[in-house]
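thought: fold this chain, then report.
action: predict
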Amino acid sequence: MKKLLAWACLALALALSGPAMAAPKTVTLSVPGMNCAACPITVKKALSKVPGVAKTEVNLNKREATVTFDDARANVEALMRATQDAGYPSTVVGSAE
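observation:
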């Protein structure tokens, strides 16, 4: 019984000591270079490849991309670099926690 209790305590301690999940963040990027129906697809693919990105919505009419990401794995600079590397420079227009 003591061994069982010891193992249970150890398992609980290990479970609680794991890395904390970072809160997801959302940022809106202005992507003024998008001007055709294929552009949002390219931007979305580029942003989706960034590790930590959970969700990407791209709006051609507004020329914006809204990205939800894990800030422990990604940052705004990485998102902007991804759009730049895809041929679509971007800037931050808004963010939410």
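thought: worth noting. Residues 20-96 form a domain with the Alpha-Beta Plaits fold (CATH 3.30.70.100).
final: tokens above.
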